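Sequence in, structure out.
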Amino acid sequence: MTPAQTEAYVDAAAAALGLNLRPDHRPGVLRFFALAAEMAAVVDAVPLDPHAESAVSFVPVSPKEKDA
């Protein structure tokens, strides 16, 4: 997103939610949304196969120990 698009989105979202965004908070909110857009672009760049599905649940596993 461009800075202008980020500002437009923040203004529209605040208005839609009835939020009164204080002027001294605006720079931080804009920085956060720009950062979130960058993170979303990284995730969006990962190619997915047509059969790829999200996991129903995540079950962590311990890493395998290296043989000494």
